[in-house]
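Quick note —
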Amino acid sequence: MFFLGDVVLDKPYRIDFTMDDFVFNLEYPLSCEGIPAKNKINLCQDQCYFKETFGRYPLAVNLANNHIMDYGEDAFDKTIEFLETHGIKYFGAGNKKNNFNNPCIVKYNNKNIALFGYSCVSTHAVFGSDTTKGSAMIKDEAIINEITFYKTKVDKIILNFHWGDEDTHYPKPSDVRRARKFIDIGADLIIGHHAHVIQSVEVYKGKYIFYGLGNFLFQYYDTPSQYNGQNFEAIHSSKNEKSNNRTLLVEVTDEFKIRYITAEYIEGCLQKKKIRIPKWIPNTDREYILYRKYWEKKRMLTLFLKNPRIPTLKQIRLFLGLKEEKPSV
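Predicted structure written out below.
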């Protein structure tokens, strides 16, 4: 069984290797019917390309992310209808009454494996409530209770988290602390996504923590954004950097041994490729803040070299780390 990163399929894609059962983060609703979310980039597809891309349907999909509710409950319900019609299990989104469809129990090699999915508030996901549908939220105490309750009822527990800063190769210290705590309580494997790049891998007390698998297949394309309640005010157009086309695949063997491989989307095809995986784990908030400052300056400089132009005063101040002057009242 394989665990894959973020997936958005706007057309069929080529993969030059095969997998048996697999689970991925479904980063969009399988319908564009409904009311778009306001003031954000909205993702959706009316046509599903699962079978054309993978040759088969996934075993299950994680729905705990910041795009599954981009077209509201109508599109979400259509997505659930499609998944159920095609025998695809799902988890991580719903409402409190159905516990956000957590856990999804799958049987693999005669083992019962519980799959959970949660989103971090930092991703700006739409969260479900007693009466409204949405993603499950990362709440430490609630997750600890879930692990404690299910660890005597299933063989293995796998947690999927939508968390971290986008395009950042290292996890937040708060996520590191959380992940280790959940392993201490009884989780057997942690799968992370949302950053759109491969993040650090850690073995903690003999159990793997994959902080971010990166994009499995998520090619940025022209998509409407900034819906104001009546119409879209912009089109989001973006092209993947090399790091956004690289992904990490986690394989869980029949004996529940963990292996992983890396792949890259090159010239229209996802193919296996040896890629260096980040190893650094920031243990303190200060370490991470310093890294983020370095990363932001490096990113700004890279963008400038790609498209040189006279910077604005605001851009200069941001690059130098100066506080923006407040207008006088």
